[in-house]
Amino acid sequence: MQINDKSGATEFLASSARYDSMTYKRTGNSGVLLPAISLGLWHNFGFVDSIQNAREVLRCAFDLGITHFDLANNYGPPYGSAEENFGTILKRDFKSYRDELFIATKAGYDMWPGPYGNLGSRKYLIASLDQSLKRMGLDYIDVFYHHRPDPETPLEETMGALADIVRQGKALYVAISNYKPKETQKAAELLKASNTPFILHQARYSMFDRWIEEELLETLENNGVGCITFSPLAQGMLTDKYLNGIPEGSRAAKNMTYLTSETVQSNLKKIQGLNTIAQNRGQKLSQMAIAWILRHKQVASVLIGASSANQLKENVKALDNLGFTDEELQLIDGIVG
Ligand SMILES: NC(=O)c1ccc[n+]([C@@H]2O[C@H](COP(=O)([O-])OP(=O)(O)OC[C@H]3O[C@@H](n4cnc5c(N)ncnc54)[C@H](OP(=O)(O)O)[C@@H]3O)[C@@H](O)[C@H]2O)c1
Fold first, then answer.
1. Using CA of residue 113, residue 190, residue 215, residue 173, what is the dihedral sign?
2. Is residue 311 part of a domain?
3. Which site in 36, 249, 278, 309 is 20 to 30 Å from 318, CA atoms measured?
């Protein structure tokens, strides 16, 4: 897609203050520091979206100290288009900043037709990363993920492919996403045996979905692997967006299978209760939702989505108030269980 420079968005010179206020956290036992808040390109960066807006959000993120951008082969829609748009913007705005960026992509969900465009075979992962690098115009990716476990392919094959991708110089580090604790443990052992730098597990986690607390965080800590959590705002429900109905253009208004207006309605009482706690802390609900996740030492970064630069600016202010009293935590538990 073309960038229209007549819109006034011309050459990008990043803010010299970009590293002044962001917090950077070590991921597991690795040498990698990630911004406490990272930006995901699942929504709002495809060919169906405005590339001018995407460009503005990325520029704003970098100026706020967000150095980590998370993609996947199938982000769009259509599939591949978020990587392509990201590549266009990278070339235009971030070429001289490549070494200041930590870029992720993934493969694991359906990407192209036939038996080799999905799941966890060596054939799929290696071909998919080659395609992703081409779409983004990159020589290498900073971290490459297996996006979800594949029960049919031996884990030895999938982890072997990740190890070889690093050896080929196509990725600096590897990661997994959506793996349960036992699968994670086995993956960690295989990657350790091949001396492959396994640094991250990406898992859904928010006040509305607390599954990682039971076992996963401990498994990651035992293996020196960091956690990066996705959908921290439950796709917008943990913000003040839906307090007075479903605004036009929002995710719930688009009635995607990911977030329906029914889900929003059924959670509204909880959202209102949480919003009151946030107000009493002098925070927005979105800021409290992010701060609440960062209370775990294993969480290296909270991976947010944003449809505007203003949302990003609001969310990054979460870092101004990360502490919780026991009473606040109990009140939150009382609402979300
Ligand atoms: N590994 C996986 O399987 C997996 C799965 C899902 C996501 N992810 C990654 O995680 C990233 C984040 O996921 P997500 O987009 O679901 O995260 P999220 O942060 O829970 O939701 C982002 C959405 O919340 C709304 N929002 C954000 N800040 C707001 C604010 N201050 N006020 C009002 N509304 C606000 C926006 O919705 P509107 O668009 O309605 O404005 C935004 O698009 C993805 O981009 C992707 O990189 C990974």
1. negative
2. yes
3. 249
245 in the Ramachandran plot: left (φ > 0), alpha (ψ -120 to 50) or beta? left
Q: What mean pLDDT comes out for the span 133-158?
A: 98
Per residue in 67-93, pLDDT tens?
999 999 999 999 999 999 999 999 999
**Contact, 208 vs 266, CB < 8 A?**
no
Ligand 1, pocket-test mutation among 64, 304, 308, 317, most atoms within 8 A of CB: 304
**In the prediction, which pLDDT does 2 show?**
59
Is residue 11 domain-resident?
no
Residue 161 located in a structural domain? yes
Token pair in block for residue 8 = 């006034």
Q: Give me the CATH number covering residue 74.
A: 3.20.20.100
pTM for the structure as a whole: 0.96
220: containing domain: 19-336
In this structure, what token pair is assigned to residue 218?
Answer: 């401990």
11 confidence band (pLDDT: 50, 70, 90): confident
d(CA 319, CA 251): 25
- What ligand 1 atom has the least distance to the C-alpha of 202? 1
Closest CA to 227 of 300, 290, 172: 300
Number of structural domains found in the chain: 1
Both structure tokens of 12: 């990008």
Phi, psi of 230 (to 5 degrees): -110, 165
Mean pLDDT, the chain, whole residue set: 96
